[in-house]
Amino acid sequence: MSSSLHPRAQWDHSYSRLSPVFYARVQPVPVREPRLLYLNDQLAGELSFDVEEFRREGAHWLTGGREWPGTRPLAMAYAGHQFGGFTKLGDGRAHLMGERVTESGRRWDVHLKGSGPTPFSRRGDGRAALAPMLREVLISESLHALGVPCSRSLSVVATGEWIDREVSKPGAVLARVASSHLRVGSFEFAAAFSASTPAERVELTRELLQYALRRHEPELQQAKRPALEFLRAVVARQAQLIAKWMSIGFIHGVMNTDNMTISGESMDFGPCAFLDRYDPDSVFSSIDHQGRYAYRNQPRIAPWNLACLAEALLPLLAEEAGLSVQAVVPEIKTEIDQFAAAYDAAWLREFRAKLGLRSENLGEDSGQAADRTLIEDFLKLLQKERADFTLSFRELAQAETVERLSSIPEGKSWFHRWQDRFRASDATTITRREQMLRANPAVIARNFQVERALKNAEQGDLTQFEALLKAVREPWTDHAEYSAAPPEGFADTFQTFCGT
Ligand code: AMP
Ligand code: MG
User: Fold this and answer.
1) β pairing state of 107-113 and 94-101
2) 258 included as an active-site residue
3) In a 10 Å sphere around its CB, with 0-12 CB exposed, 13-18 middle and 19+ buried, how is residue 489 labelled?
4) What's the N-to-C CA distance of the chain in angstroms?
5) pLDDT for the residue 500
6) In this structure, which of 59, 314, 445, 464 has its CB flanked by the most CB atoms within 10 Å?
7) Which residues have CB atoms below 5 A from the ion given as ligand 2?
8) What percentage of the chain exceeds 70 in pLDDT?
9) 119 lines ligand 1 (CB under 6 A)
10) Residue closest by Cα to atom 16 of ligand 1
């Protein structure tokens, strides 16, 4: 085992000890000419991988081309609501290589994407293109640096093969790491497709629930109503996550239930993007014609997805309550409704921090309503003036004004109200500014820069990719080049593309 060099971490395969219906044993398909383009040294170190060994063998291991000691590849089964329609899915171009368990007992899934077809591929070729895999690196590293829970990118290996998309594209395999790859769709699979009889499906759902509790909520295993407590925990985590996304102007782009984790980590970065100018109706994804996953809809879609999770758990939820499925539904609806309250509170906390507002010394209720209005009015100003979301908040943090907004009458009056608000708080100007500078990044993985970096990378030049990656990893530091607005007109036409 490679871990013999590093006895502090080891491989395990707990997922493969589930009933076989939850996965297919399948090997990655070796690629023609693997070349390691990107390795996250720091993350590799955290997982106690030997970076030198990775530099020698990684191109083969991280594409499944040579046996990677300790790994036991499989493709995970899941289902999902895609743009509202329910389908059986599964890893169609991905392999779970195993779980890395660190000395502290933390367990990480190590997963390859683009590593070849599986029994779940349907019509897909099992491959991934280079640019979207590098995109996933930029976006996930940016989110991570911004303090947003997300899967992490460990490596990208170019395959030396061309794959057929609309045009021919260079291929790559991504390795990513997450606290698990259990999704809402994993439970939907268990409830709908795991066996031919309803009774068997309930038992398999129970098995998956117990597994998820072991991994994510060990303290709830002994709970009286484990399914309910589990649902509550997932609802709570998703409320925090979506509020974080909103506070940094992040649009996931494909919030299908198969892309929503139960760990509360952001996952599957397809046509996602950060807002440039503030427009809550923004949709960048070329496949999202109805705007289902627009920026403003994210907090509405999340509870819709969570209701799918609840539905999959319904027989267990009913059994625990000693009720019929029908009789337990009202209580479960109330649980899903908790999302809105938890999200609202998290949203207020995030945006208060962005505006330097502290909640102390205020009558809680009046303070909350007034602050909410103050925040919403600022966002309306941004929208009206088509101002850049990230840069406007950053300017506010640095200069206590936003030039573009303070010159118009509504802007002037907003700034007066904002200043007045501070008289109610005991924060000094310095602590306020520090708080704002920590809540308002200077650097995000900005669309025009991401596009430019990827275009060059496809032509073999990784310089811009590497420079942008370095910048997004230090989001709180002003950076002349990467703290700049997009060129005029760019934001009007920008679209992102999925599933490639
Ligand atoms: P995604 O849009 O990446 O969340 O993927 C949705 C589903 O399509 C998953 O089951 C993927 O495994 C599958 N899929 C996407 N692209 C491919 C491909 N090139 N080959 C096989 N399966 C794919
Ligand atoms: Mg997916």
Assistant:
1) antiparallel
2) yes
3) exposed
4) 34
5) 63
6) 445
7) 259, 268
8) 95
9) no
10) 499
